[in-house]
Amino acid sequence: MPKFVYDFTEGNKDLKDLLGGKGANLSEMTNLGLPVPPGFTITTEACRHYLAEGAVPAGLAEEITEHLTALEGTMGKKLGQADDPLLVSVRSGAKFSMPGMMDTVLNIGLNDESVLGLAAQSGNERFAWDSYRRLIQMFGKTVLGVDGELFEESLEELKHAKGTTDDLDLTAADFQKLVGTFKGIVRERTGREFPTEPREQMDLAVKAVFDSWNSDRAILYRRQERIPTDLGTAVNICSMVFGNLGMDSGTGVAFTRDPASGQQGVYGDYLQNAQGEDVVAGIRNTVPLADLGQINEPVYRQLLQIMETLENHYLDLCDIEFTVERGKLWMLQTRVGKRTAAAAFRIACQLADQGLIDLNEAIHRVNGDQLAQLMFPRFDAAAPKEQIAKGMNASPGAAVGKAVFSSEAAVEAAARGEKVILVRRETTPDDLTGMIAAQGILTSRGGKTSHAAVVARGMGKTCVCGAEDLDVDVKARRLKTGDVVVQEGDVLSIDGSTGAVYLGEVPVSASPVVRYFEGELAPADGDELVQSVHRLMVHADAAARLAVRANADTPEDSERARRFGATGIGLCRTEHMFLGERRQLVEDLILATSDAEREAALDALAPFQKEDFHGILKAMDGLPVTIRLIDPPLHEFLPDLTELSVKVALAGADASDKDRRLLEAVHRLHEQNPMLGLRGVRLGLVIPGLFAMQVRAIAEAAAQRLSEGGDPRPEIMIPLVGSIQELEHAREEAEQVLRSVGGEVKALIGTMIELPRAALTAGQIAEGAEFFSFGTNDLTQTTWGFSRDDVEASFFSRYLELGVFGVSPFETLDRDGVGRLVRIAVEEGRRTRPDLKLGVCGEHGGDPESVHFFHEVGLDYVSCSPFRVPVARLEAGRAAVETDGSDSR
Amino acid sequence: MPKFVYDFTEGNKDLKDLLGGKGANLSEMTNLGLPVPPGFTITTEACRHYLAEGAVPAGLAEEITEHLTALEGTMGKKLGQADDPLLVSVRSGAKFSMPGMMDTVLNIGLNDESVLGLAAQSGNERFAWDSYRRLIQMFGKTVLGVDGELFEESLEELKHAKGTTDDLDLTAADFQKLVGTFKGIVRERTGREFPTEPREQMDLAVKAVFDSWNSDRAILYRRQERIPTDLGTAVNICSMVFGNLGMDSGTGVAFTRDPASGQQGVYGDYLQNAQGEDVVAGIRNTVPLADLGQINEPVYRQLLQIMETLENHYLDLCDIEFTVERGKLWMLQTRVGKRTAAAAFRIACQLADQGLIDLNEAIHRVNGDQLAQLMFPRFDAAAPKEQIAKGMNASPGAAVGKAVFSSEAAVEAAARGEKVILVRRETTPDDLTGMIAAQGILTSRGGKTSHAAVVARGMGKTCVCGAEDLDVDVKARRLKTGDVVVQEGDVLSIDGSTGAVYLGEVPVSASPVVRYFEGELAPADGDELVQSVHRLMVHADAAARLAVRANADTPEDSERARRFGATGIGLCRTEHMFLGERRQLVEDLILATSDAEREAALDALAPFQKEDFHGILKAMDGLPVTIRLIDPPLHEFLPDLTELSVKVALAGADASDKDRRLLEAVHRLHEQNPMLGLRGVRLGLVIPGLFAMQVRAIAEAAAQRLSEGGDPRPEIMIPLVGSIQELEHAREEAEQVLRSVGGEVKALIGTMIELPRAALTAGQIAEGAEFFSFGTNDLTQTTWGFSRDDVEASFFSRYLELGVFGVSPFETLDRDGVGRLVRIAVEEGRRTRPDLKLGVCGEHGGDPESVHFFHEVGLDYVSCSPFRVPVARLEAGRAAVETDGSDSR
């Protein structure tokens, strides 16, 4: 039979799977000799058994009894003992932190008798009765499922009757009366008496904590945070200590370093005569932790000593919860603490400088999301600002513009070249055009999974949502907050990284980290942050096994990508070269009615293409450049069907001949589902000469670079291949053109893997491909069967709410579905062709979590937008040290 | 070292892999003691080696020498021997018949000397020189790659100079002269002399046959017929016999039974003084085989004896090629012969009656495509008909209508309620609307993979294509053929099963086989065909492991499906119930601006739904009915965006308020790619109450059936699920509704597997599904990334031409891609839930080859349109006896 209960002296910090995070760290502190109230932990395994079988495992009750008896021995008193009761807390604690999601019951062990003993022992009758009513209240709500409002209302009524609003005005007698009322509520609502037997209280509380693993909110939270659903929670049973026994008692939180800057020092808050929740609830003002030095110097010094111990032990910033009970310090919790992005980089380098960790561990301590945050433009910290509200930091960035209150107004203003912030109570799919037109989006309702938040993140657009202080009046085109009124046209500045909303224009400046990547700021000239970033990037590059390329379609983008550290272009989209003044030539191609006309149109396009390719090959001299042949359906280059139909209909007999011909072509090429239509390799096989023109332009551009002494490395990529036969036809044509251009020009020929069938038949397709590039955007669309344009606005926010996704599969690669296809294609492609070059050019190439996946499956490179290149480089290094590196602890 | 050469005495009919079909059957006949000219076969293995390495395997030359020496011994003369030459043919022969695809060279062994010996031995100088010039011509073209036209032109010139058009007017001297001319052509075109060394001739011819495996047309043919590309061909070297040595010689073809009716008897053609090709080429009129009885009675009797021997040996209809050389019969080829659909059924039953085969083997001998052909309506055989042309039988059926020559005319006529035949030279994607509007399609150009043929088959529309005798003048709106002129509006009748084109209306009648399935014709009252079909269907049903259900949305269709033998409804589409008069209610639902309006709209729809379900459950009493909740995007129920935009724009200020509101809704719901949009389970999760209304209607309909004493078996199917989370939400809602209706109502809850992700995560999804139904239409669309509506017309014909597909993946399931996903889902779904019920409801459920696949992977049932149910039943039985049945030979 497995062991279901661990005394705090038996566990350690590496047993999080079994004891949960809280339990493992309580054990760790106990073993370090720190003052932790004695207690024990019931394992997650017991919970899993309970959830699966509907009953606690055999033997658990006996094991608990054994540990409780030992605890009672240690404490010298028995649970609920009438004259001097041992009280315990029963707290949940899972492997992953799920703050506030699951249940806790304090003061277990109180009943009508022991409350008197507690009063006598503490010398504080009011405290004892308050503790008792809290027990009934928490127990009633959590364990017995009574509506918590009923208890709150009784409390409010009592205060109202006494003419006060402050709990502190209630007396022992008041609380005693409340105990009676609360018991009545329990009786009335549950048809049973509040259980006064201490052990029964404890057992029921344990089960309630188990059950709380599957509460709706916990399930939703896990779905959103992608915490596995079958882990279960541990239960910590800990002897109670009280910070509310008088002014010699108190409770506090502390950090071993400044979580904002990373500086070592004394950071935290303390509150005298209070319990844990009171600090968080903000009922009274806390004092800075340093003041504890005046209040109780020995305790303060002991705490500093413990903080040093913990940091040297955990080798990282720790956050701590503690309680002082009548002058004695008790540690209630510790864990590795959260920190800002900048602090994460600084702390990692500081710890490396102190020799506490090595550089492998240092890059493990930071991540790409943090780096991306450091790269957003920011509001000038020194500039004067008038903050008028704070909402949720839904999508990062700093946006400034005139407030507009409708999508139409946003579109109109943007058409006039004005920058705007779209302000709505909440957004709906109808606001999409306005969101596209705006610099940023501000809403007064909705959380991080609201429509506004989801869509804005998808667009990479700054967004602050749920700024509840704002009273948004869309009809009147204004918002109010306190005395401030913002009319349409007034300027707002919103900080998507902090959630702050400022009145007026706040100056925006480029991040020093970006200036460093751009080469405008030498590492040595930068501040500690820039230096830290530099050191960690150098190490990540050295460690990485994945190369990082960029998606870029112009020489300018290619140059920036190179400055940002890209070692090639992974996706150069040629259709972008068909826009602007060249669109006319594409129209000619589409309207061609004879071979001669079609060939003339292609001949006219060729020199432009050659020039484009020459510029990019020059910018990327010596590095590979993957050029994708034309991908979108041709009707994308024509006017919109509905608009043109209306135009021609309104013009009637006066409609121009050109418009009529265009309309005829638009009709002919119209597709119900263009994403699933005549595009990619299909176009290449159906329209004679189209691919050949592009391949010739690539080959001639490369030949020119060779004649200039350059080192061009073009790679020709065939899009939307679903079968080896398609690839073979396109490949034969391309090879023929390459041979006809002759000379020294060489180019790899490969394909996108962006259709499920391409992945499923990758073993065959690899026969005709020298490289694969996973087009994970399209692969996600076809694997899930949804079109990004259509569905992000229409149902993604609902899906996030429902927990169907933890995160949009367009942001982070869906491992189970799309990832499985990638894995199949990698394995079977390499089986056919061991030297097959493998990369990814979807936007996932710049997403931290996805980069780890691509490392895991063994790709050769990822490719992403130039701005994401540093993020991908860092994550490529992190992935390498995490899976390949030596254990650095 | 493997053995590369088999004497005809060494092989047998089961060695087709190694010896090809022709070689294996020549050996078989030799072993049966039939008069086969001696010879030997070079194996496909030698060919594969040659194709892989570019050279014949070591030892092959020696082995050939050995066998040639033995052959020379048998024949008593040497290859090319001057005074009495042994001549041989060198013929290809692969495992699968590839008629006309690969090469043959006859008369190997002739040169300037042996031609004189042949003349002397045959006593026919003209024959000898004719044979020699044929050798040079065939060898020049096939082995040396000289343009065959050059030889033809010389021959024509000679005839022209002699003032004749008939080869028979040419003399020995003429042919001798032609030999000189042909040698000159070879010299001029290849820069070498025609090789006169007999063994060199033979070796070069063998290599040419090997090479012909990879000729363009052979590759294309294999792609289309889905013959594996790596089999290679065998080469048969056979001593020549001549049917053209005088009137006591001749050549013929024979069948052991009538391939049209299946009757045993004497069927075939004979041509005196002729070689094999002459029979096929139709240069002279053949005589019925029975006439051979008069010409040479002993030979005739010998032939009949041989035919009986062969049929009893092969246990099937055989077709035979033979030659009579100066009164001696030689067998040149035999194989199991092709036959009509009706003959196939009759022959299978006859053979079973004769005790030659058992019923398992009998159902193996027929197939669903044949049964489908027997079910098409047909032109009344007895009715007078004026056939004016014959084209290719591109898509079966009998269609009658007025000829129209443009897509517009077809659409206009159809709008007036007229039936039309669309006549075009060839069709293009622009003709799509016309093809939809027409009863049938007739073209004068293009083969079975032309646009017209492919699209028509996809639509199930009758089509005759490539009727080359028709001179179609689209501008003048008429066609001519001979003296007949057909103007637009004149009636045509086309037979897509035979390719016949008739002038005027030919009466159409239902097939007796359909009348049998409908129950209108008892088996005993039917003809031999109906009785044969009945016997084989009964056996197939008994053998089948796959059940067959139907896709049906109305009580009427359900009843027909039941009559046709369906044992359930596999797909009942509920959205079809939202059309007609109820469309208004759906509009109300879409335009609802409040919860109350939405609920009112749903409440109004509910009684209709309940009525629909009640009718279907009644029709299928006691059998399962799988009802799919609403699947298409809601905008499908609204007017078209472009049409409505034009209408509102033209109306200007006069546009109705309703139209404006509708246009607003159409805009709001518009999707770029509706197939990938807000539909299926996504609608269910986004629109409160929609799925619940449907589930309630199902439950209430079932409750009513129960109260009527019925046995309703509804199964609720959630469409477009991509993740277990979606299914769980929909399932919870459905279960809640079912509980609320209460009573005895039970319903399985399951899901469509129609997205790649659903298949890839089927192991998870099975946790929430009691059944899976593979929606292979959508699964094909998403796996390949093409939309059927958009691409069949735009590039499928090109893809079939290029050999990307052998057959449209919408007709026959793509095993490598889509099939792999099905397999994954079956295995992983069953692993999670061993009693998971598995079916398919895409159109592939009625496709013979696909049914075998579904049997193989272990589905429980297929579901298809009612009319395809018998086809699926037959194929389900065939699949079972082929994979599971005892060997019945």
Automatic annotation (TrEMBL), chains A, B:
Domain PEP-utilising enzyme C-terminal residue range list: 532-877
Kinase among keywords: yes
TM annotation in the entry: none
Protein origin, superkingdom: Bacteria
Tagged with keyword Transcription regulation: no
Keyword terms: ATP-binding, Kinase, Magnesium, Metal-binding, Nucleotide-binding, Pyruvate, Transferase
Domain PEP-utilising enzyme mobile: 418-499
Cofactor: Mg(2+)
Annotated Pyruvate phosphate dikinase AMP/ATP-binding domain residues: 60-285, 299-343
EC numbers, comma separated: 2.7.9.1
Record field: catalytic activity: pyruvate + phosphate + ATP = phosphoenolpyruvate + AMP + diphosphate + H(+)
Family: Belongs to the PEP-utilizing enzyme family.
NCBIfam families: PRK05878.1, pyru_phos_dikin
Protein name (Swiss-Prot/TrEMBL): Pyruvate, phosphate dikinase
